[in-house]
């Protein structure tokens, strides 16, 4: 049981470390795409303000003429939604022969968006792997806890005929450690334990 339990602990630890390590690069990609989406929307609004584009241009991107602010881009879902809308909207505009939006162009936006989505999907797969490792560890921990309790009871049963002090001393050789509550210290004969520790 012990090698399998140790392997489950190691697998869970490795999956957590891997997720945390890859998350650093993912956060960089997240910040980068947020900037590009925000700038692309701002360029559209500025072009309309200058009269270079008509207000109806906003309809291609799902933007409102009433509110010229950049929409919320706080969550990953919002970034994905707006990234897709902008790329698709610009594609439709270009197919109709309209002037492309520049600085950034949709091509540059798409490169960063695709890279972000690649990291996003990979990070989600790491999260799922970590969750599976946690579930497997929890299952093994339940079995191990039951085994420890069984061993504890068997060791105590084996030494039940011995005097109390000797019984505890012998049980300690098997990894059983008794920790008494404050109110039990004066009356050790109660032989109740508040916490189980084990070498396992």
Structural notes for this entry:
There is one protein chain. This protein has 200 residues and is an all-alpha fold. It has two domains: 2-135, no CATH class; 141-197, no CATH class. 70% of the residues lie in helices and 3% in strands. The protein is built from six helices and two strands, in the order H-H-H-H-H-E-H-E. Strands 1-2 form a two-stranded antiparallel ribbon.
Strand content: under 5%
Radius of gyration using CA atoms only = 31 Å
Helix content: 55-70%
> What structural category do the secondary elements indicate?
mainly alpha
- Mean pLDDT across the residues is 89
| Element string (H = helix, E = strand) | HHHHHEHE
Q: Which sheet architecture does the biggest sheet show?
A: 2 strands, antiparallel
Name the overall outline. Answer: rod-shaped
Number of individual domains: 2
Number of strands: 2
> Distance between termini?
10 Å
The main sheet orders its strands as 1-2
Enumerate the spans where pLDDT stays under 50 for 5 or more consecutive residues.
Answer: 188-200
Number of helices: 6
